[in-house]
Amino acid sequence: MNSKVTVVTLLEMKARGEKISMLTAYDYPTARLIDEVGVDVILIGDSLGNVLLGYPNTLPVTMEEMIHHTKAVARAVKRALVVGDMPFLSYQTSLEDAILNAGRFIKAGAEAVKVEGGRSVIDKVRAMIDAGIPVMGHVGLTPQWIHQFGGYKVRGRTADAAKIISEDAKELERAGVFSVVLEGIPWQVAKIITKSLKVPTIGIGAGPHCDGQVLVLHDMLGISDRVPKFVKKYGRIKDAMKKAISDFNREVKEHRFPTLEFCYEMPEEELRKFRAHARRHG
Ligand code: KIV
Fold this sequence. Notes:
With 282 residues, the protein is α/β, with parallel strands linked by helices. Helices cover 45% and strands 13% of the residues. The protein has an eight-stranded parallel β-barrel with strand order 1-2-3-4-5-6-7-8, surrounded by seven helices. Helix 2 (28-37) packs across helix 4 (63-76), helix 5 crosses helix 6 (122-130) and helix 8 (159-175) packs parallel to helix 9 (187-196). The N and C termini lie far apart (65 Å). 3-methyl-2-oxobutanoic acid binds next to loops.
């Protein structure tokens, strides 16, 4: 499918039983690659914090950082739906903050935003949707809540906990989200929630029955050092990068780079004149 992916496309894909693919991207060249390959949704995730910026988690990520990277991604993408991830405290604080910050993502080129949480943020979700901004929900193991959860632990393992996640997802649907990310929950719970919703679910560590799947790009490429159990490494890019960088380092130190093949040539006559000038002027 080559036509532009919109929030409506995702609803139609669920209706047709077509799986939705989603990856994170934070810069122009990788966003371009992901888009060219045909991935349906590109998320500028607040995973930017731990993946690219060296923060210990997503909590320190600022709006300024997110907008900077959203602009780069949006410039690259022609087909995929571009979703900006609202960072910690950019929407929880007030309806006004939620609308204004979501609006900044749209002005930067995103076509939708994602927020973490269910009923606790439902008034903010409604306000953003009322302002004309499509919203993707995110429930289960929501990384902005790690201190509340006591770490990155699978959520929804008891019937009561699963019920809360399921009700949050339902409430988000009622508020008008176009899709819900289900993260770090048992696959059986994700299957039941997916069946109960009209909008598509996008799973990450939530099993095969979600309507779509998302992974963090650097995790699936094999660049990240430590990845959760649910990540399949589709590449070993870190090894390839390490080899290329260490080959460069060695060749420079061994006087083997650059050879003439990588150099510019001066015409003989010009070189003669320049040598004469250098002899005169030192
Ligand atoms: O920040 C992120 O990359 C995310 C995805 C993992 C869903 O929220």
